[in-house]
Amino acid sequence: QFLETRHLEMKVAFDADQSVGLSYDLDRIPNTIVIGRDGMIVFVKTGLSADGDDQIAEAVRKALAEVPEAE
Fold first, then answer.
1. How many other C-beta atoms lie within 10 A of the C-beta of residue 34?
2. CA distance readout (Å), 44 to 30, 32, 34, 40, 61
3. DSSP string of 11-71, one letter each residue
């Protein structure tokens, strides 16, 4: 629903069994990590906040707008 209401199209990974979170010693939920086109982490948010959805949406927009450097 978050993606649909903001007209964002992207792949989202869901750690249903928490194996990824445990391997990175993440002990709070939710954890939102936005990874840029270059594979680098560009945004991290832990927990809930009133403006959290807007923060995440803005981070995703910025990440999608960035053009990776040519190798």
1. 20
2. 11, 6, 7, 11, 14
3. -----TT-HHHHHTT--SS-EEEEE-TTS-EEEEEES--TTHHHHHHHHHHHHHHPPPPP-
Side-chain-facing half-sphere of 45: CA atoms under 13 Å: 18
Q: What DSSP designation does 7 have?
A: T
Report pTM.
Answer: 0.64
Query: Tens digit of pLDDT for each residue in 11-64?
Result: 778 888 888 888 878 777 788 889 888 888 899 998 888 999 899 999 999 998
Cβ(53)–Cβ(38) under 8 Å?
A: no
